[in-house]
Amino acid sequence: MTIAYYHQYLVTVNSAFKGGEIFPTIAIRSTSEGVNFTGTVILGTNAFWLDANSQYTMPQTISLSQGNRWTTNATATGVVTGQLAIPLTYQYEYLVGFGSNVPAGGTLSAASGWYLPGASIQATATPESGWQAEGWTGMGAASVSTSGAVLSLMVSGPVNETAVFYPGITVTDNGPISVSYQDGSASGTVASGKSITVYVPPQSTLTLTASAAPFLYSFEGWSGAGSSTQRSLLLSVSGPAVVVASSSYNYLVLALILLAIVVVLLVAIVAARSRRRTAGLRQEETLGSPAA
């Protein structure tokens, strides 16, 4: 009969859990009596006899459902070099994601990460040149959706927050016409000789329509982000852009009017000369007739 004795030390794990209502089961893994050992750590004080100079490990992070976890900043691994008392406090955390609908649209002041329940986060969406921050769209039961550049969020669950940036389309009217625009959610008119910037969703289609040109003028076409000689232009929006509507005098009409004026003048001149010639002939006939 062989009897084996093992040099062991008492290892006490004092566990605590903050921020959650359901406490997980923690496993401590080491060596006891020369064989692999797995013990269970529950809330409170837990005592284990572990072999001297053996290694012990406990999880640093315990993942639960998506976006939920327990984590500790304490040392959860080590070597049993003597009697140990290990304080182990796990904190409940939620995953909060921050992003934008278009990365090129701007920057965010908050970063994705794990946050404590009850944490207050203020995130600001700062647009790049040519863009505008329209608001935030949230996903998750505890998320927030709001207009404007600033988001205020009280963390009470896993969420994803997306900053929404719209590109600006500058429409310039260079002639005596007006331009109307429509993108499905916004509409308006650009007055003659004016320029405005409208902000529309990326990947949308902006419809631009030039009004009929007044007398003596003609619509030349569109230039810039869109090119066409038609009065209506469908612009596919992917980023900030400039579109110019141009019109000018209708030189063909002016030429025809000038020609008509010349013709009228010529007719008048010919008629006047004809009348003078006729009058001269009558006078000659009168002078050449014998006196009675």
Kindly describe this structure.
The chain has 292 residues and is mostly beta strands. It folds into 3 domains: 9-92, Immunoglobulin-like; 94-165, no CATH class; 167-251, Immunoglobulin-like. It has one helix at 251-288, and strands at 8-18, 26-32, 35-41, 44-51, 55-57, 61-63, 68-71, 77-79, 84-100, 106-108, 113-115, 120-127, 131-139, 146-147, 150-154, 159-173, 179-182, 187-190, 195-199, 205-210, 217-224, 232-236, 241-249. Strands 1, 4, 6, 7, 9, 11, 13, 14, 16, 19, 21 and 23 form a 12-stranded mixed sheet that branches. Strand 2 and strand 3 (35-41) form a beta hairpin. It is rod-shaped, with a radius of gyration of 43 Å. It starts with 7 loop residues before the first strand and ends with a helix. The model has no long low-confidence stretch (mean pLDDT 89).
Lay out the secondary structure.
Elements: E1 8-18, E2 26-32, E3 35-41, E4 44-51, E5 55-57, E6 61-63, E7 68-71, E8 77-79, E9 84-100, E10 106-108, E11 113-115, E12 120-127, E13 131-139, E14 146-147, E15 150-154, E16 159-173, E17 179-182, E18 187-190, E19 195-199, E20 205-210, E21 217-224, E22 232-236, E23 241-249, H1 251-288
Parallel strand pairs: 1-9, 9-16, 16-23
Antiparallel strand pairs: 1-4, 2-3, 5-8, 6-7, 7-9, 9-11, 10-12, 12-15, 13-14, 13-16, 16-19, 17-18, 17-20, 20-22, 21-23
